[in-house]
Amino acid sequence: MKIALVGATGIVGEATLRVLEERQVPIARLGAFASRDRKGAVQFRGETLDVLETTQERLQGYDAVIFASSEEASGTFAPPIAARGNIVIDNSATFRLQSGIALLVPEVNANALRAGQRIFPVANCTAIVLCVALAPIRNSVRLRAVQVATYQAVSGAGRAGVEELLAGETAVLSAKPEPEAKAFAAPIAHNVIPQIGSIGPDGYATEESKVRAETRKILGLETLPISVIAVRVPVRYAHSEAVFFQTERRASLDELSEAFEKAPGIVFHREGIVTPRDVEGTDDVHVARLRAEDESGTHFSMWVCGDQVRKGAATNGVQILELLLERGMVHAS
Ligand SMILES: NC(=O)c1ccc[n+]([C@@H]2O[C@H](COP(=O)([O-])OP(=O)(O)OC[C@H]3O[C@@H](n4cnc5c(N)ncnc54)[C@H](OP(=O)(O)O)[C@@H]3O)[C@@H](O)[C@H]2O)c1
User: Fold this and answer.
1) Is 125 a catalytic residue?
2) pLDDT tier at 272 (50, 70, 90 boundaries)?
3) Is the pTM here over 0.90, yes or no?
4) From 131, 190, 239, 305, active-site residue
5) What's the chain's average pLDDT?
6) How far apart are CA 100 and CA 232, in angstroms?
7) Dihedral, CA of residue 281, residue 269, residue 286 and residue 105, to nearest 10
8) Range of the domain at 205
9) Which of 18, 69, 305 is the pocket-test mutation for ligand 1 (most atoms within 8 Å of CB)?
10) Rg (Cα) of the chain, in Å, rounded?
11) Is the CB of 309 under 6 A from ligand 1?
12) pLDDT of 82-92, one tens digit each?
């Protein structure tokens, strides 16, 4: 299989290269692309590869193109690739909410895959982590409502986000003036910021609207009441989420615990806590601190952590590619 990766020099692009290697995806040729040409800028399976500026012509001849770049690049380059009958896997938000396009999180909704789809968006990273954690509840006792507060790592804003945290921390610790906030709405070092994206007329920030709409789409619960507050925290990798949920039918903590233990892609902690640093660089979503909120048997809460660059982007994209290989929608040779 011939694969192109657009955005190979970014945080998600680099993680995608590692995940393709680790999962031994059968790739005969990998083309690495970004916004400009660079000699020997990335490593893949022990080889140093040149990175090329992305152009329409250069993206021809690949069975599948993975985008880990920008909405603008996906919007420009993806449709002609799909029109030629090739596969697009896209980490941007460009196509996620289009009707007729399945938003796949393979552990949660692989059954939504239909023949003929060529563009496969990878959902918002926070929504992916949330949906993996909510799927066992939806499948066993059904979901009535969800409220979630997210604690999102700076790498969610790409390399620029990580660099802004490091520069801010260095300045604070050396008592120097902090650099102006660019990737975030306020200085991130030694701080938390209750705004990710711009705030719309309904009071919802863009990240919060994405999480709400995409969670409903992935879970196949288009009218699920869901409230979201998204907060940026000075953590480098892995998002955390405090999730309050109400179920349609009464359940015991034991029943829910068993559902989590059997669910694919979840590590369930009956005891103790889990933190973003524990899950950095891994692919599972971790669920801890499950508890009842009252005596009703329908009100619960839990703490969830997942590496949003891995499961929330790179790994989920590669899992989609594996699913397409399995279903014969793209061919290994
Ligand atoms: N970071 C996350 O946690 C996360 C999670 C889920 C989804 N995503 C999505 O994944 C995508 C990549 O995010 P990231 O965090 O990896 O960003 P990043 O670290 O800033 O990397 C961006 C990459 O895109 C390339 N790029 C930018 N504009 C381009 C253009 N016009 N044509 C071709 N390549 C271009 C950059 O190339 P140069 O090096 O040449 O500038 C770089 O390789 C975004 O759509 C983002 O929303 C990110």
Assistant:
1) yes
2) very high
3) yes
4) 239
5) 97
6) 32
7) 130
8) 127-308
9) 69
10) 20
11) yes
12) 999 999 999 99
